Amino acid sequence: MLKIGEFQELKILRETDPGLYLANEEGDEVLLPHKYKPVKFETGDVLNAFVYLDNQQRPVATTLEPHVKLNDFGYLRCSQVNKFGAFMDWGIEKQLFVPYKEQARPMKEGSWYVVRLYLDSLTGRLVGSSKTRRFLQNDELTVDKFDQVEVLITHITEQGAHVIVNGQHQGLIYIADIFEDLHSGDRFQAYIKKIRPDKKLDVVLQSPGYRSIEPNAQYILEELTAAGGFLPLHDKSEPKEIKDTLGLSKKSFKKAIGSLYKDKKIKIIEGGIELC
After folding, report:
1. In what order do the strands lie in the sheet with 272-275?
2. Which domains does the chain have, with CATH numbers?
3. Strands 169-174 and 201-204
4. pTM of the shown model
5. Rounded mean pLDDT, 12-30
């Protein structure tokens, strides 16, 4: 059976006027239109193609890379709204439909939203939903404290940046832990700072605790080298000055230079730090 909404290895069976007919190992066929066929090919070649449903709900293949895949989240632009719902540009010819009942708030043409792509069990169609929370759970966590994870920022409030962790869990980067400009739709490698008793996840972009000293120390060494061996920063520098120069919190900066000083890799002098 063809896997709708996924890339899969498909063999070229034959060329016809509409395009190439491909098939999986079970013999299920799908059309790859001519505009997507490779420049050079032979019958029997295997292509990695993405399969979706066209406007007549027929399976069709493409070699284009969609902005979101089945059972995953993407940051998509709303290109059209009508009486049935919204339509999102997701990188392939047919737009992704988001019905009104699947909109966390009414979508507007030209705006961007975090959307989940799923296969509707009743219609067999690929559908989008901006009601992301219903696809997430924190009851059974698959992460531990200090784990490196992938996060997608859904929205930002006064509390901080709300994120999807590894496509499965809800998390939050608190305002106090943000030292750079963040926006909805940004993806980052991040770290689990804390797992609360209610299983809420505190997330940071820099490795927390003692684990942050080594990478930050290496980063400062690289910045020192690039600056000719001297940086006009020290433990008395203003937090904003450190953040603007290195993108680090003052606490992380002090830990890092303390480690470098102890290892005799830098000297702390009047006006800043320099390489030994």
Report:
1. 230-231, 272-275, 266-269
2. 7-62 (2.40.50.140), 73-133 (2.40.50.140), 148-205 (2.40.50.140), 211-275 (1.10.10.10)
3. parallel
4. 0.73
5. 95
Distance separating alpha carbons of residues 219 and 187, to the nearest angstrom: 21
Computed on alpha carbons and rounded to an integer, the radius of gyration of the chain in Å comes to 25
At 41-93, the pLDDT tens digits run: 999 999 999 999 988 889 999 999 999 999 999 999 999 999 999 999 999 98
Which residues face 127 on adjacent strands?
Answer: 118
pLDDT of res. 210: 44
Cα–Cα distance for residue pair 71/217, rounded to 1 Å: 38
Average pLDDT of the residues of the chain: 91
Q: CB–CB of 97/53 below 8 Å?
A: no
Name the strand (E) or helix (H) holding 235.
none
Structural tokens at position 76: 């998509």
Residue 211 has pLDDT above 80, yes or no: no
- What six digits make up the tokens of 91? 């990188």
Q: For the chain, what's the residue count? A: 276
Distance of CA 107 to the CA centre of its chain: 21
**Amino acid at residue number 184:** S
